[in-house]
Amino acid sequence: MIQDYFKLAYRSVKQRKLRSWLTMLGIFVGIAAVVALITLSQGLQNAIASQFLKLGSDKLIVQAAGSGFGPPGTAVASPLTKKDKIAIDRTKDVDLAVGRLIRITQLEFKNEQKYTYAVSYPENSQEQDLVIEANDYQIQEGKFPEKNSPGVLIGYNLAHGFFEHDPILRDKILLQQKQFTIVGILKKSGNPQRDDTLVIPEESYRSLLGIKDDYDIIAIRIQKSADLASVADSLKKELRKSRNVEKSKEDFIIQTPQTLIATFNTILLIIEGVLIGIASISLLVGGVGIMNTMYTAVLERTKEIGLLKAIGATRREILILFLIESGMLGLLGGIIGVTLGILISKLVEFITYQIFESVLIHAEISSWLLLSALLFSFSVGIISGVLPAKQAAQLQVIDALRK
Asked: How far apart (Å, rounded) are the C-alpha atoms in residues 142 and 185?
């Protein structure tokens, strides 16, 4: 019996091909946008999470609380200092702490000026090992810069396409109008932050920018047997003393890979919600289109409805027939939309990889998303067809046959 409803509904949709396509337009555009956005954002979320988790479960990051956008240390009233690093070093269960500077620096190569982030490279060999491990620095050519030397290590992107003429090992480059030598080039990682970076020996960097004691960020590795949360609490106590601040008035932030992921996910969810809200307007338009089409179908098929009632069809059966037909319009629009959404997200993934060779833009396709999109589109169709279906079901046999 139920298959008969679907056969009749499919026949009706097929007979009005052009109108059916125009009706489904709003549905599949909206579904395609939602599917593409969610698959790309889910892929980005997973890629970022994996990047953060590479830090390891034994690491913490401390930075001064800022009030603006930009790298750590931007727009802070009270930056981290060497005194804070000493306080962190003496905290129980802290294995090693590394302070780093992260600033936007002017570069000049062959009379071409550019700007990028430059980070400091510590002098202590143990601290150097931690920096290399935490950032997954891998040398493609050359070596890491030596202590107090005018040598710099550049990211892959700075050596390929950043300047009109690509710099190579031992080329001279001006940083803040001071000459440095390129001693190493990093392998491509696919992470723009790492591939666009410039690594400078700490003391050379301090001399270059005129910075005495400040740090923008302090990375910490804790003892293997230590608990991350308890160490974080101990660090807060030590830093409160060092920075002379009261509890709940801290001017610093202690972050774990998990808190960084949570912060990023919150931001991504807000952006995702706004974009899906915009795409939902198309779904609303699609729903109105289905309702309009179904009202038109009731008017065109008045005699058919009368005949169906004359041979024994009940109001309930007429109602179900029209609801299935409107639901089918929504479902077909959903199927097309899901297919388009997957194709769009995969195309974006392919294009961005070809341009940036980055794994961060990745389409994460899940079965629950596809099923949810199809169920939602079917529901939109049914809801949009409720009023026209009621109108069809309430037609009187005599009045329907007269028209």
From this structure: 6
The DSSP code sequence of 226-282 is S-HHHHHHHHHHHHHHHHT--TT--SEEEE-HHHHHHHHHHHHHHHHHHHHHHHHHH
Distance, CA of 11 to chain centre? 43
From 209, 239, 256, give the residue that closes a domain.
Answer: 256
The pTM assigned to this predicted structure is 0.65
Amino acid at 89: D
Residue 190: CA count within 13 A, CB half-sphere: 14
Q: How many other CB atoms sit within 10 Å of the CB of residue 82?
A: 13
Q: What's the CA dihedral at 330, 331, 336, 342 to 10 degrees?
A: 110
- Write down the pLDDT at residue 153: 96
Question: What are the Cα distances from residue 159, in Å, to 188, 264, 335, 351?
Answer: 10, 29, 45, 22
Domain boundary among 233, 256, 279: 256
Q: What is the largest CA-CA distance in the chain?
A: 99
61 with 36, same domain: the answer is no
User: Which pLDDT value is given to residue 127?
Assistant: 92
pLDDT for position 199: 95
The DSSP call for residue 76 is -
Within 8 A by CB and 6+ apart from 226, the residues are 58, 93
168 pairs with which residues across the strands? none
Pairing of strands 198-201, 112-121: parallel
Q: Could you give the count of Cα atoms lying within 13 Å of 352 in the half-sphere of its Cβ?
A: 17
Report the distance separating Cα 76 and Cα 383, nearest Å.
53
Instruction: Tell me the residue range of the domain where 197 lies.
Output: 57-256
pLDDT at 207 (0 to 100) = 92
Distance CA 81, CA 64 (A): 10
Which residues of the chain fall short of a pLDDT of 50? 67
Q: Give the integer Cα–Cα distance in Å for 373 and 122.
A: 51
- The one-character DSSP state at 372 is H
CB 255 within 8 A of CB 229: no
Residue 185: phi and psi, rounded to 5, are -130, 130
